[in-house]
Design a protein that fits this description.
Blueprint: H1 2-9, H2 11-34, E1 41-52, E2 55-60, E3 66-72, E4 75-76, H3 85-96, E5 99-104, E6 114-119, H4 126-132, E7 137-138, H5 144-156
Length: about 160
């Protein structure tokens, strides 16, 4: 204890203590900033078109003059030039209808595009519907219900899982 008091008694010791405390405070602030919880938002958007089997283009902005992409979270659909790519896009467009409710549980991409769970006009979960139809694959980080929907499509040999 006397050693600590001797260190704190010197000006060099006080400077070191101040620097250590400042470093620790900075570390805590940075850690909290990078590990902050993603804010869950829900919004209803007007759909312009399905650009592929896992992405919608929607009107955005106060006067809906801009467009932005809505990516269906945790799924990947075949590209338009791949087998069933066009069918996947058409199925998503049919399921979505003209408006979609987006739960942006995964935040936003740098461009302001939303990533989340999408619900069509009838309330269908579009992410799950694409997986059940076999027109998309779920990512390894997908929730358990997404993986179960994919297994269901694989077992029934639907869409990309056929043949």
């Amino acid at each position: 204890m006397s050693i600590i008091l001797a260190i704190l008694g010197s000006s060099t010791g006080r400077t070191c203590v101040v620097l250590v405390v400042a470093f620790l405070a900075g570390f805590v602030v940075c850690w909290r900033w990078t590990h902050r919880a993603v804010r869950h938002t829900t919004e209803t958007v007007q759909v312009i078109e399905a650009t592929n089997g896992a992405t919608l283009e929607a009107k955005a902005g106060l006067l809906e003059r801009r467009t932005r992409k809505i990516s269906l979270a945790a799924i990947a659909a075949p590209g338009l030039d791949e087998p069933l790519g066009q069918q996947s896009k058409e199925n998503l467009a049919k399921l979505a209808g003209s408006t979609v409710r987006v739960e942006s549980v995964f935040g936003r991409l740098d461009r302001g595009d939303a990533v989340g769970i999408c619900y069509g006009e009838r309330g269908d979960n579009l992410n799950l519907a694409q997986l059940r139809a076999g027109l998309a694959r779920c990512e390894s980080s997908a929730p358990a219900d997404f993986k179960a929907a994919q297994k269901e499509a694989q077992k029934a040999k639907r869409g990309i899982w056929g043949a």
